[in-house]
Amino acid sequence: MSKVKHEFVKFKHVQELGGLELLNASYVQKQFSKHVHEGYCIGVIEEGAQSFYRTGALHIAPKGHIILVNADEVHTGSSAVETGWRYRAIYPTPEMLRDVSQDFFQPSGTMPWFPHAVIQDEGLAQQLSLLFDLLENKDNQLFKQTLYLSTLAYLMSHHSRTKLGELPLPEAQNRILMIKDLLASAPEKEYSLNELAETAGLSPWHFLRQFKKYTGLPPHAWLIQFRLHQAKQLLKRGENIALVADLCGFSDQSHFNRHFKKSVGVTPLQYVMSLR
Hints:
With about 280 residues, the chain is of the alpha+beta class. The chain has two domains: about 10-160, Jelly Rolls; about 170-275, Homeodomain-like (Arc Repressor Mutant, subunit A). The protein contains ten helices and nine strands. It has helices spanning about 95-100, 120-135, 140-160, 170-185, 195-200, 205-215, 220-235, 240-245, 255-265, 270-275; strands at about 10-15, 20-25, 30-35, 40-55, 55-60, 65-70, 75-80, 85-90, 120. Strands 1, 2, 3, 4, 5, 6, 7, 8 and 9 form a nine-stranded antiparallel sheet that branches. Helix 5 crosses helix 6. The longest helix has 19 residues, at about 140-160. The radius of gyration is 19 Å and the shape is globular. The chain starts with 7 loop residues before the first strand and ends with a helix.
């Protein structure tokens, strides 16, 4: 197995595709703790092998395999081998997939659910790699959009499922959803465990267990992830990094930088540079 020579991270935002995020990364020692993305992760392992937690299990993705993580799905990431791993991936948001999938399966489009974290589909992996090559270049807008659409159509028709219609939620889950809405309405605020538990009508211990059960993360970790989502949106709008850190509830810019790089893989400044 070839060795990944060094670590690097390159972000690109493809404006022709609505600002679609494209990642080209190589890691050896990097370990991503539990986190979520606002968009889906659709990637191909190009060297080495990746180990990651998703859907309650640990998965190994070797070279040539496709990795899939659903939007807002808790997952981790690290090397499965001593030599590290290199991969490229796109991160379409649920809204992007709904928009591009109009008339795939139904007139209004759909937001897919990918049941398998790792898939072996050599033809699709080659097509994704071709798409990544194309997206890294400036020209061929029509070809980019055509290949993007056809690749997603194949991926969704062969490897996704549509979740069943919503069923009535358990009372505890409704209470947790209420707390998520509360946190999302003012993520910059500081909250106490007792305050949140009392609002949910649960004991602090029961609240912690229920929150992690239904979100995959404890409250403080979920709030940090939401703050990072909000920060990315503000950075895309051109807001100053220090101001974004303050608006999103991070105690200082170094605190913001540390959490941002841990979750996204690059610093806020590097992320901003990728937008240009």
